Amino acid sequence: MCKNDIDKEHEERIIALKEALLSMDKSHILDYYRKYADDVTMDEEDDSVFWATVHKSRTALTCLPAVERLTSVKWLTDRGFSHFASDLIGAEKSFQFSNFGNYKH
To answer: Domain residue spans in the chain?
Structure first.
């Protein structure tokens, strides 16, 4: 496999991951993990674990829009979970959380 092939494959995986995580659609997210993440186990039965994993993943993916990452930070912190968005600490003050991303999951 050539370097360009690896780069293209990696880019395709990142695009697919972004699409899945931005969709906030459980079946779309599970389809992504079934296709690309052989070594990752998603708990399909326990919704609280599933959505905590999704939101934590969203906070780690720095190519997602800040507003999406901050929505997941809020979701996680409201439920007592940690996050991976330390680069956004302080940025949440510039957003009105009541105006976006009120995910029920």
So the answer is: 3-99
Burial of 88 (0-12, 13-18, 19+ CB in 10 A): middle
Residue 2: the pLDDT is 41
pLDDT digits (tens, 9 = 90+) for 39-76: 666 666 788 888 999 999 999 998 899 899 999 999 99
Maximum Cα interatomic distance, the chain, rounded to a whole number of Å: 48
Structure tokens at 48: 């609280």
Residue 33 structure tokens: 């993990």
Q: For 51-55, which contacts have Cβ atoms below 8 Å and span 24 or more sequence positions?
A: 51/75, 51/103, 51/105, 52/76, 52/79, 52/81, 54/21, 54/24, 54/29, 54/105, 55/81, 55/83, 55/103, 55/105
